[in-house]
Structure formats: structure tokens, C-alpha cells
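S1.2 Input.
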Amino acid sequence: MRSIYLVARRDYLGYVQAWGFWLGLLLTPILMGVGMMAPTWAAASQPTRYYTVIETGTDFTDALKTEIEEDRISIARTALDPVGVLNGEPNETVEAFDAAIDAGATVDEALAEAGGTSIELPQADFIYVDPPGRTEEAIQPYLLGERAVDSPNGPQTLFAAIFVPEGDGDIEYWSENITAQSLLAKVRAAERTLTERRVFAEAGVSPRILSEAESRRRSIAEKRARPASAAATGSQVTLADRAPFFAAVMLAFLLWFLIFSVVNYLLMGTIEERSNKIFDSLLTSVKLPDMLAGKLLAVLAVALTLMGVWVIGAVVVGNAFSGVMPPEAREMLFTVVSAIAKPSLLVPAVLSFILGYLMYGAVFLALGSLCDTIQEAQTLMTPLIVMLMVPMFMIVVAISDAESPILSVMSWIPVFTPFLLILRVPAQPPLWEVTGLLVMMVAATLLVLWLASRVYRAGAVHGAGVGDVGKWFTKLIPGKKKGEA
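S1.3 Output.
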């Protein structure tokens, strides 16, 4: 045991004393946060664009303005009550906001009536301006930027022009930006709304019947047969019931990210020791199984250090900003964290992390012992990295349907079990299935450790390379004779 501790301490200190380790430790959450916020920042930084509609009357213009406002209405409703909107049970504030919108108020006016004046909404992405011309030839200079249109913010370039003919002619959408499709989607939605109104009018039915039908629509209460959360009334489904699924996705991604990050230490460190002949010195004082266990333990400690620092940082940041967070957001965060702390999810997650780490860590250690250069390692890493990407795709599947049959089938593939078991736990699979998956994962981990130790001994002690191990596996093929090509 002492030799295992000494090897683990040597490798652990070698990793954590490097300035690159702490730089990566600090930059990783920052870069992940930037990556998650990038779409929001990109949308917020998008410049306001100006469009015009050339038509007889204002029907299409009004319908298009309504469609464009829908995005801001959705943002406002979520800001007023994020938990209630997510659960489909908005509070009285959102109901007051909806009533003001239905009465014809603007988004800002509706927010004021609902008491949400402190909420800052993003500026509208598209603003209507009066047509600077009525023909295509007259509009083209404004679309090309040769001339500017008058707007509330001064002269601006015209982003798009929509020509709406009388009768059944095609609507023409003119814009020099052929990649931005958001305004074009709104144009199509506005035409769909107007078409519905025309069909109702031709049938002799007042278009207002659509609004009346919407107002008389019954709410849908989502329930489940099994007992719901203690915070719910009866079997009503609430955020507390969905929280375990959110927590499982977070834990599965964290496991994937940590394994993807730390096993690289094992590979690169082993290659360096092999190329520098450090193996020879270590093996004179440490048994090979102890050295293998010590290296796995060292990088496991590195992973725990990463998680510990990130958790402490998250708690500190959460406490610092808890005062400015909306109560609904705090409730959502607390509910998800509480779901993570439940033994029914936490225990399988911890076991999956340890066994998954040992499985993949042993494989990368074995590969490192066979390679003299980074180039050799890269050729072997490629299939493993592709294999590690499969759980990420399954996480995407679990977000839409945690009880998907493909998750059930693929969870029985040992290399994917550590990730997919976590995703399946909130769906409450049968106890025999969870037990079977855990037993299979333990057996697979022991088998991988045994095979990895054989390969590690061949590479570290006997200097075997990638080609030698290929020959060793060839001998295992029944009927394959020695020397046979």
C-alpha cells in the first residue's frame, strides 16, 4: 500500500504543481460559460435591422409586426415567472401580462401593467419603416446600401423589403442577406395567419372566433400515475418531478467531461515516462501492479480536485449572486441541486464515475505504455475519442426522451454503461435492471483492468510496441498458426 501511495503522490503533485493545470482549472468553467452564453450574447449583439412592406392597405404589415413581437412576449413571460412558464402554470403576474397583450397593449405597456417594470427586454430585432419607394427599381438602391431610409434612429440601411401584391400573386421577400432567415420565417408565419383569416371570412365565420376559441381553451394538467413529488398536490407534475432528469443530464455530462479531460494525463504521462526510460527506475523499487494502481489513483485525485474546486467556486458565486437572482430562478436551482443530492441518483452516479474512470483510465494507460511518440498515440486515440462521443449523442437523446428504447439497449454496452445508467435512473427502471447494469459494469471494469495490466507489462517492462500487441491478439484467434500471414 505504501508503494501505491508514493506513486500516487508523486504523479499527483507532478500534475497539480504545474501552472498549466491551474490555468486550465480556471479557464475551463469560464470557457464553458462563454460557450453556453454565446448564443444569447450573439442574439443580444445582433444589430437592429429595418424592413419595409409594400402593399395596398396594412393587413400584412400589422400581421408581421405581431409575429415579430411574439419573441419579446415569450422572453417577458419567462422573465416574469420562469418556473411557472416551464411547468405550464403561470402565476397571476403572467396572467395579467397576457390579458394586457390580448387587450392590444405593447409588450412594454403590458409589463408595466403586470408590475414588471424592472425587467429589461432586448430591443426588437426588426423595426418597420415606411416604404421609400413602391417599385422594385426604387427599392434596390436602399437594399444595396446606396441610399438610407429614415428611421427613429436616423438614416439606416434597409435590410429587407416585402412586396405583397393584391390577389393571389406570390409575396416577394427581397434582402441582400441570404443567410439570416429569422425575418423570412416571420413573413411566412404572418402569411399563414392571414390565410387562416381569409378562409374563415370566406366561410362566413368571424375571424374573432379564433381569439374566442383561444380564450376558451382549457388548460392541460400534467399528471403521472406513480406518486408525484411531496411538494405537489396529488399527482400533479411539477418542477420537482422534472428536476431528477435535469440533474441526471448534468451529472452524465460532468462524468463525460471529466473522463475526457483527465484520462489524457494518463496517456501523455505514460508516453513521457516510456520515452525517457523512467519506467526502468520506477520498476526497480515498485511492483508493476502497485505502479499501475498508483497512477490510476493519482489521476482520480486530480479529477476530484477539479470537481472540488469547481463545486466550491459554484457555491461562492451562487451565494454572491443569490441576492440579485429572481426567487423563481433560486427555486429552480435549489430543486435541481436537491435532486442531485438524493441517494437514488447520487449513489449510481458515484459508482458510474469510479468504474467508468477505472475502465477508460486503464485503457489509456495501456495505450501510453505502447507508444514512444505522440504521433503513435494519436492513431490509437482516434477510435477511442469517437467512442467517447457516443455518450454525448445519447445525452442529447435523453434530453428529449429519457425513456427512449435506444438508451435502454445501449446502456447494456459496457463502455457506455457508466454514462447511460445515470441518464436512465430518473426514469426508475426495475431494480433488477439497475443491479444487472452495475454488476456488468464491475465485471467489465475488472476485465479491462486485467487486460490493461497485461498490455502495460508488455509495454513498460518488455518494451513492446503497437505492432507487438497486434501480434499478441492475433495469436488469440482460433486456428491462427504461428508465422501465418
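S1.4 Remarks. The radius of gyration is 31 Å.
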